[in-house]
Amino acid sequence: MRSKLKNSNMTHLTKNLCLTLMFVGAVLYAQEFHGFAEYQSKMKTDAALEQRLKDSKMPPERLARIKERIKKSGERIFELHFNREASIYKEQLKLEAGSSSRGGMFAMMSGGGNTKTYVNTKLKQYVKDPESFGKKFLISNSLEELEWKLAKESRKIGNYLCFKATAVKTVPNTQGFRMFRPRDEEEKEKKEDLPKTKDIIVTAWYTPEIPANHGPDMYWGLPGLILELGTDTMQLVCTKLVLNPVKAIKIVAPKKGKKITQEKYDAVMAEKMKEMAERFQNNRTKGGKGHRMH
Predict the structure, then answer these.
(1) Residue 291 has pLDDT above 90, yes or no
(2) Running DSSP on this structure, what letter comes out for residue 246?
(3) For 56-89, how does the pLDDT look when each residue is reduced to its tens digit (9 = 90+)?
(4) Distance of CA 179 to CAs 30, 160, 171, 185, 207, Å?
(5) Is the separation of the CB atoms in 141 and 119 below 8 Å?
(6) How many CB atoms lie within 10 A of CB 86?
């Protein structure tokens, strides 16, 4: 009888302990978790762009200036504010002496330096507010779900153990910057039905030590925060990470701008890029002097 009573008490204590642990776990999870990550970007010239520049027959000193400008335009700093469900990604803007609108050409073409990208991984939605060619837009759509392939390969990034993951992503086939294409190739493209998209390999390094499936821009869906990400033309590396900072920004979706679909916005940008390329080609052929970039 005494043995049965002892077993009953032990069972009761075990149940209470389990309930207590579940309650504590639920409270800890419910607590607001947030973080801040800073990413350094570098632009890589892909094979197509390298060939365009080579075929442009520019003087060596001018070609060197353009390559340096492309390199500098890609050296930017971005910040990611995140919690368990949502994130805000934006560029850190810094005013530099002697900067000009032409100096921000590549940023303007890529959607503007003051674009905020809001991502909600629970709802699988994104909202972004790019400012391009003097106009503010507001885009809202479903998040693309990449089919990540998780690898066993690992390495340390800072103090965090990270694992490798890769995915195939379909992107617009820009064939390098249009403005660097020879005139005869422009004419050839008009006659031929070239593919509008291409597939690229995305390589990410994520850490399961940080329970957030976010990453830079709209890259997400891995079992941990992405600390490094690379494609054929771009590399992003996390250089600063703060968990539960004292001052955390409120993560809300942007609301200002002309509402437009992603497809319509891409079409508008493609048309603007075409106009810029045509102006560049016309300036380059007038007197053989071309458009100066310095």
Answers:
(1) no
(2) S
(3) 667 777 766 766 666 566 679 999 999 999 999 9
(4) 52, 42, 19, 11, 40
(5) no
(6) 21
Contact criterion met (CB below 8 Å) for 152 and 166: no
128 dihedral zone (left: phi>0; alpha: psi -120 to 50; beta): beta
To the nearest 10 degrees (0 to 180), the angle between helices 183-191 and 262-285 is 140
Name the one residue in this structure whose structure tokens are 């809202």. 140
Which neighbouring-strand residues pair with 149?
Answer: 166
Which tens digit of pLDDT belongs to each residue from 186-236? 555 554 566 778 899 999 999 999 999 999 999 999 999 999 999 988 899
Cα angle for residues 262, 137, 92 (degrees, 5° grid): 105
Name the token pair of 281.
């080609």
> Over 90: is that where the pLDDT of 17 sits?
no
* DSSP alpha helix (H) spans, the chain: 2-30, 47-55, 60-74, 105-109, 183-191, 262-285
